[in-house]
Amino acid sequence: MRNLMVVNHPLIQHKLSILRNKDTGPKEFRELTREITLLLTYEATRHLPTYETKIETPLCATTGKMIEDKKVTVVPILRAGLGMVEGVLSLMPNASVGFVGLYRDPQTIRPVEYYCKLPKLNDNEIFVLDPMLATGFSSAVAIDMVKKAGGKRISLMCLIAAPEGVKEIVNTHPDVRIFTASLDERLNDHAYILPGLGDAGDRLYRTK
């Protein structure tokens, strides 16, 4: 599917299998979320520009390449997206962080906005973080909000995705790249991903 990158590295698949397991507790779930996000970030940042810099090794002078991570913005969708932030910042510690708060209305399954705080986006590379791309409605609304704030270069990172969610993003935001560890089978009657991993927010923060 256009603009979809499924990162099926053996390390990611190994960690994702443990993450899915219903017996995996919140501590390990948080650690695995961070680690999988870190590995996804490696792929999602392949397109970042580099600049040359002069450095001195212990033996001689040479030229190296670096990225400008101050021109990167991370936008987690509250609350589950918070679990992915550390994985990105461990690789790009100077990135700015914005926050979008959305919850799913149980009757309509549509997202309801309750919070938005974004830094100046300028021409930054922007990574929207949403562990579960289910219907895609929340991610699409979050991307709308980022675009309204001036964001242009946007990627969406999620742990797992449903075909329905991917289709929603491709249709509403065809310019956005999607990076995920797995494209799962489908949504169930309650719009949860199958086989999925349950509710990421509840498992991260032990709220059920």
From TrEMBL:
<dbReference type="InterPro" id="IPR029057">
    <property type="entry name" value="PRTase-like"/>
</dbReference>
<comment type="similarity">
    <text>Belongs to the UPRTase family.</text>
</comment>
<dbReference type="InterPro" id="IPR050054">
    <property type="entry name" value="UPRTase/APRTase"/>
</dbReference>
<dbReference type="GO" id="GO:0044206">
    <property type="term" value="P:UMP salvage"/>
</dbReference>
<dbReference type="Pfam" id="PF14681">
    <property type="entry name" value="UPRTase"/>
</dbReference>
<comment type="function">
    <text>Catalyzes the conversion of uracil and 5-phospho-alpha-D-ribose 1-diphosphate (PRPP) to UMP and diphosphate.</text>
</comment>
<feature type="binding site">
    <location>
        <position position="79"/>
    </location>
    <ligand>
        <name>5-phospho-alpha-D-ribose 1-diphosphate</name>
    </ligand>
</feature>
<feature type="domain" description="Phosphoribosyltransferase">
    <location>
        <begin position="6"/>
        <end position="207"/>
    </location>
</feature>
<dbReference type="GO" id="GO:0000287">
    <property type="term" value="F:magnesium ion binding"/>
</dbReference>
<dbReference type="GO" id="GO:0006223">
    <property type="term" value="P:uracil salvage"/>
</dbReference>
<keyword id="KW-0342">GTP-binding</keyword>
<dbReference type="InterPro" id="IPR000836">
    <property type="entry name" value="PRTase_dom"/>
</dbReference>
<feature type="binding site">
    <location>
        <position position="193"/>
    </location>
    <ligand>
        <name>uracil</name>
    </ligand>
</feature>
<protein>
    <recommendedName>
        <fullName>Uracil phosphoribosyltransferase</fullName>
        <ecNumber>2.4.2.9</ecNumber>
    </recommendedName>
</protein>
<keyword id="KW-0460">Magnesium</keyword>
<keyword id="KW-0021">Allosteric enzyme</keyword>
<dbReference type="GO" id="GO:0005737">
    <property type="term" value="C:cytoplasm"/>
</dbReference>
<comment type="pathway">
    <text>Pyrimidine metabolism; UMP biosynthesis via salvage pathway; UMP from uracil: step 1/1.</text>
</comment>
<feature type="binding site">
    <location>
        <begin position="130"/>
        <end position="138"/>
    </location>
    <ligand>
        <name>5-phospho-alpha-D-ribose 1-diphosphate</name>
    </ligand>
</feature>
<dbReference type="GO" id="GO:0005525">
    <property type="term" value="F:GTP binding"/>
</dbReference>
<dbReference type="GO" id="GO:0004845">
    <property type="term" value="F:uracil phosphoribosyltransferase activity"/>
</dbReference>
<keyword id="KW-0328">Glycosyltransferase</keyword>
<keyword id="KW-0808">Transferase</keyword>
<feature type="binding site">
    <location>
        <position position="199"/>
    </location>
    <ligand>
        <name>5-phospho-alpha-D-ribose 1-diphosphate</name>
    </ligand>
</feature>
<keyword id="KW-0547">Nucleotide-binding</keyword>
<feature type="binding site">
    <location>
        <begin position="198"/>
        <end position="200"/>
    </location>
    <ligand>
        <name>uracil</name>
    </ligand>
</feature>
<feature type="binding site">
    <location>
        <position position="104"/>
    </location>
    <ligand>
        <name>5-phospho-alpha-D-ribose 1-diphosphate</name>
    </ligand>
</feature>
<dbReference type="InterPro" id="IPR005765">
    <property type="entry name" value="UPRT"/>
</dbReference>
<dbReference type="InterPro" id="IPR034332">
    <property type="entry name" value="Upp_B"/>
</dbReference>
